[in-house]
Design goal:
By secondary structure, this protein is an alpha/beta fold. It has one domain: D-tyrosyl-trna(Tyr) Deacylase, Chain: A (3-Layer(bba) Sandwich), CATH 3.50.80.10. It contains 2 helices and 8 strands; from the N terminus they run βββαβββαββ. The strands form 2 sheets. Strands 1, 2, 3, 6, 7 and 8 form a 6-stranded mixed beta sheet that branches.
Amino acid sequence: MRALVQRVVRATVTSRSDDDGTWAEVGSIGAGLCVFVGVTHADDDAVATRMASKLWGLRVFDDDDGVMNRALSDLDTGAVLVVSQFTLYGDTTKGRRPSWIDAARPDQAEPLVAHVVSELRSLGATVATGRFRTEMHVELVNDGPVTVSLEL
């Protein structure tokens, strides 16, 4: 499982409706983390649980001295926007078009991303999400900027 984590001032995801093609907001947070999550074939619930724990404890927020010593778990409002992102497993070692062979199919990935979300909520995070199997637009204001890549 891979995650691209961005500390944000705010983040919003909109999704296109399958019915009429209109766009609607499906998730939004204020200050917190915007997390793009990719799943590969070997991932399971244990990996998803570890990812949620890693995100909850990731020390990327400033303390009183301006040093990144705080995690979501240390904040009064630990907000996370989780967006599925199969393209994190794009392989660009050959040619100019990425291969997606390492990305899990939606029927495997969706429950594992949902497990990350569920675990984050059980830890105390306020979680918003994107929507699987739809085109999405993600708008965010990166704070810092701080961007971290995680892989389990």
